[in-house]
Amino acid sequence: MAGTSRGRRVTSGDVAKEAGVSRATVSYVLNDSPHQKIAEATRKRVWEAAARLGYAPSAAARALRTGRSDIVLGVLPDWPIHHVLGQLIQQLTNAFAQHELTFLVHSSAQPARPLRDVWKALTPAAVLALNEFPQSEAEAMRAVGIEVVMAVHGSPTEEADPPLGTPLVSEEPIGALQARHLATSHRRLGYAYPDLPRLDVLAQPRLDGVRQVCEERGLPEPVVRSVPLELDGATEAVKAWLAADPPVTGICAFNDDIAMAVLLGAQALGLNVPRDLAVVGVDDIPSSALLQPSLTTVVRDTDTLARGLARRVVDALDRKEPHTGRIEDPLRIEQRESA
Predict the structure, then answer these.
(1) What is the pTM of this model?
(2) Rounded to 5, what percent of the chain is helix, strand, coil?
(3) Could you give the percent of the chain with pLDDT greater than 90?
(4) CA-CA 20 to 30 A from 206: which of 23, 31, 316, 333?
């Protein structure tokens, strides 16, 4: 077996020497080049040699050959990476892999490296940001040939040239679904808002969805309280809802973590859930079914969401007719005991 120096990267030349063929033949075989008649025995010998040596074509060489990188850079805001976000990242990784793309994630949480340093080092084919994207950053990326910059959440950014477009996912339907579920038997709703301002891009549109349903049903404006993930603060929020006129009897919570805090706050005050206060969460995290009472929650089909996001990026890279509007984001209520 042909050897390589310790620490040196295996090259196509090493594979050619190991297989007893030319470097051009190695390139034709490993890249599955069309219109090249290579004997099956030779192909097998090249693949076996590459496997023995642990050869992997460099990203730079592949980019030169195909005209683009195979990397999609996912930019995360400074959000807690809990169950659902982690699940979405994994499903995006799988969805992009089906298109022979590699999904890499960069978190903006400090003290992370500046985003500009990251994309300059990687030169990805596309960038998929979970939050609104600064226009200046998007323009700088496009100037060096990064073709796609998309925002999953946020508000439309029309002043960019070219425009960044409408965010791909809407959060309003989540709040609207919670409110419709509760409005069948509750005349005054509350909204349990997270006490982390960096989550406003998700929480505010969900609250807007609740407000819209209240207006449609002729219900009073929902009573909004920030709910921290600690018992005393959650108990104070529940007290404020009970003191409203008329009292709040149904709570739409930002997510399941906030809903759990509300449940504990209600129980600390001796309330019966759902008789005295009904609660609906979002995300269906594993522990939501284990609570007493178990938590009614909104379930998002993150697998369908991930495949839709990947498809939108791939179509843009392939210069297909640009899509308009949101991607498919199926939602449903998981009915349990809390509402």
Answers:
(1) 0.77
(2) 45, 15, 40
(3) 50
(4) 316
